[in-house]
Fold each of these.
Amino acid sequence: MSTYLRVLIISDSPAEVAVLLQILRDGSYDPLWERVATAPALDAALTKQAWDVVLYGETSPDFTPLAALKLLQDRSIDVPFLIIAEKSSEASALEAMRAGAHDYVRKDNLERLLPALERELREARQRRAYTQLNHRLPVYPLTTHPHATSPLQLIFILTRDGRLRYVSSASTRLLGYTPKELAETHLQTHLHPDDHQATWDTLSSLLHRPGTSATVRFRFRHKHGFWHLLEATSTSFHDDTTGAISLVLTSRDLGNSENTFPLLTNRLLHDVLTNIPSHALFLDQLQSLLRAARHKNKTLALLLVRIAHFRAVTKTLGHQWGEILLQQVIDRFRSALRKSDTLMRVDGDALVILLPPGSTAATAQLVARRILQVAERPFLVEGQTLIVRTTIGIALYPEHGTDAQTLLRRADIATEIAASEWSGYALYAAEHDPYSCERLLLVSELYDAFKRDQLVLHYQPKVHLATGRVNHVEALVRWQHPRHGLLSPEHFLPLAEQTGLLKSLSLWVLNTALHQCRAWQQQGLPLCVAINCSMQHDLQDPQFPDIVARLLQTCEVPATCLEVEITESTFAENPERAVITLNRFRDMGVKIAIDDFGIGYSSLGYLKHLPVDEIKIDKSLVLGMTKDESNAAIVRSAIDLGHDLGLHVAAEGVEDQATWELLAAFGCDFAQGFYVSRPLSAAALARWLKESASSKADLSVPLSASQKAKGHVQPVEKT
């Protein structure tokens, strides 16, 4: 179940917005969002409606975080304000935090965003709750509690040895000290003796890893002698002023009243129905367990339990009976747990079980089986017998994550694995995880790849089997990534599709391929080039044929030198629209091929009605045809079908001489694959063609198998 969230994003980068929204959705949020990039646009957005959070990202130098923050403060808007900062702009982010921003997250450490956001949203809820409770608890007024009036409590900047180099002005109101009185004193001189070791262990661990963060709680002595409980988000950074590693602590006061604080904590942080810890307390308790596990060098297990069809129960029987069912489920679960296990409700249909430090995968799986066992027995609600189905995902510290949000997210992914495998429970496995911060970082970097000329085209030759001649090449996009090297399309095309960059990428490929085609022609190499098209972003666009026609004219390339390839699956999505677009290509003279032919889609009935020139048999069939008679029979049938319909037939994935010879015997027209050549850069392809030409004296003789085995390939036929 997703949590509705109103998000205002200050950014002039659509790619950055896409990354942030994906992070929120991966964190089970359902964002209603708006992007603004200027002060007037921000002002208008703040007027239009209320927001739950403001994320400040990449904007022009004129619109600084301070300027954006001032607009909120001028309107007395108290919502979390988080800065997404490049490493180079940390100084600006810190300046904004001193002025009232809640936190900043570096772009190279986006895993911090969800924990930081969750913490700030929780604090915002608590501030509102404290304000309301002030009117209901006259015996214990919280007039000293700053949450109701100030979104920012305290900021400390610590040197490496723990001295306070900077203290915000909130210290006067909250702790009784002016910033000058606290400056250059050591933090530990102000802490409760029982908190010294744990606090400094956490803070010192950050000093070796700039850009990392942790949450720590400690008691700070007020100037008049009593203790304030503070919660601080601590982040290490490289201080350009001193050249050393420093710590910034964004601290919040959790109260000093011995009577009211327990009452407020119970009301705010426990589920009203079941009195088990709620989502508001979940991360705090998990952080405590993580610190204990880290300190003792032990493992920790988290189980996320999702109750299937819980929403359907509440809609059918009513919310009240849904809650009664949940209470019965929780009572059952408690009976299967030990006293050391902690049960929490984190969502409408989701519960979390935290096992104590030292818990292993085997322990977690045993608990999961117990939960499934007690959940099997029917429940009785409003006279009706209900069967509850649960799926359980397990994540382990430190194997699957070292922070609360990562463990929760990966346990959630494990529930998806359990549901898909009908196994009841599953342990998180990285190979099943389609999400990662590295993947999200790639999205942002892909946007920059266009501007930084990191995209390149490689070209794979397609050889005529009967003559060995090369007249056609397929254009294949690659990304020359600065960190990962040359990336193939499967690493970034799904990201481009998810973030709306696929259309721009398709146009770049088309434009680059046609310009290269023209360059080859000027060199006396009249090669035709094939490009891959998608249904969603190319064939679905009624303007796409016009764009292709203009580019052909601009590049002075004949339409017959261009071939567009679509997959069977792409065509099957919307055959009517595909036929309209493909007919326009046929009228222009552009050649059309169906790629990945034969992998199981039901477009054969439309094949005879399509304006298609060629089918390309999928490599999964070609690779095994010499060892699998069934594959060979399918390939041969596809070749015969294509020829019966008057089409050329090409085979992909030709990697050895035996496959080459069998395809030739079947009468296949073209072959493409590593046995012919790997995809090559434009310059390498030209050299390859020249070397192939010089290695064969008589170009009129068809290529024999023995010549092919030696790498003798005919060059393009000169005109």
Note: The two ends are 64 Å apart (CA to CA).
Amino acid sequence: MSSLVTLLQIPGLLLVFGAAVVPFLPHKLRQAYMLAIIALSAYWCWGIDVGTHLSTNLAGLDLTLVRAEAITRPFALVFHIAAALNVIYAMHEKSRLTATSGLAYAGAAIAALFAGDFITLFIYWELTAFTSVFLILVSGTPRSFAAAMRYLLMQVSSGVILLAGAVLLWHGGQGLSIQAMQANTLAGGLVLLAFGIKAAFPFLNGWLQDAYPEASVTGTVMLSAFTTKLAIYMLALCFAGTEILIYIGAVMTLFPVFFAVIENDLRRVLAFSLNNQLGFMVVGVGIGTELALNGTVAHAFAHIIYKALLFMSMGAVLYRTGTAKASELGGLWKKMPLTMIFCIIGAVSISSFPLFSGFVTKSLTIGSVAKDGYFVIWMILIFASAGVLEHSGIKIPYFAFFGHDRKFEVKEAPLNMLIAMGIAAGLCIVIGVAPHLLYGLLPYDVKYDVWEAGHVLGEMQLLIFAILAFVFLMVRGWYPPEIDSTVLNTDWFLRRALPRTVNALSRPFLAAWASAVAQSKTAILAVLHTGEETSRKSGLVSGVASTGAAAAIFLAIFALLLLLRFVA
């Protein structure tokens, strides 16, 4: 009993263990129960101050089960907010599997925030993978099954690589404590790679665009909140100031813009956009100054909320119409006006319009880049910001709610969905109008005047230019049309280039093998023919030979035939 009480003192485990009860509760009681334990967990986490609070020794290893850093509280708070929004958004859904796995997933992610050593982190790192994969499998389609298996493979691989890095750190005498480290060592490189897989670094991001759109309507919203932001949190703890992350993050902000513009599935557009927004956070970690890290934390906080809002709005559209493809949508503003309004609030938030959350958080990162003199990176982030407006700020609401009127006869989203979207939209506005409420949670006391006139004017000019560019392309007919296709992005190298290269390189060897098999077959048949002729001349096949000799000949021929069958 005392051991259970000790375990429940670990933040997040209340949700993990509490999820075991969920399948056995009636539907309405289940919703109230989940909201209650999320609130209790949030209250418990809010009272945890910076420092180590629970540690143990297991088989000679010193494990830190509960440790809070300066950036832990804002991440823990927004994870709980996301968990509560997920429960409200999914209240109409009867699936016990979604409710159970979603609650356990949130709990595992929260517990990971407070892990103070790599062994403890590894346990929760893998637990987030095993609990979240059911959110994809619950869709029950062949595509979702394939995406879930790839998702699980990548997530589990990330954990194994993380464990390998931890073992090397321990073997090198650095201990298992989660701490700042160098990326240019083998151990540090492995840990960075493990974090990079979950953060969807370039060429490691295919699982994200594959899995998130294939999850259930509610599962996609849940997935968008935790895994990648947990990786950002760990990058900030271990690799703040690692310069290579500046360039990795810049690539992450830039390339998804092009793929999102031509993607047809609007949930995949949002998955590309998620990758783009992660890039801003990674750049902030790479800069590593107090202002930049404040920007990373603030942007992660706001992003979880407005990205959830956008996924919720597209989920509501999918729930009512049965599709999330731009080529099949349009005209829904008449039938789903509230969903449309909430979607637009999410769109202007992610696009960094003044008075909305994205403006007051992204500005910190971009400002830190400019302050530290990374002019090229600053230009890339500015271009990427304009691109975000194109694909998430305009394309998502335009093609879903305006554009071609498909004459849908559908109802507005269910009430619980509207409540969840309304809360998220309200938070986007509150953070945008009163940023000091969020800034007060940030780890460092750094002053930044987000309302400086030149900054506001420059942002508005950028946004207006991007809007005019979209209008111009649409009027001229140059904007990429809605085509029912799937964009492979960097997965092209794995799904197309790599198989073709392997086939090209292996073709000569396969031809040589086929030739060798053919020659062996000819030789074996020749031996059999010679044996048959010899037997006829000696009278063995004509019945003169004894029964034992005939059996031996039969077995020999049978063995040769089996060998021939195997070789051929």
Note: Residues 491-538 form the longest helix (48 residues).
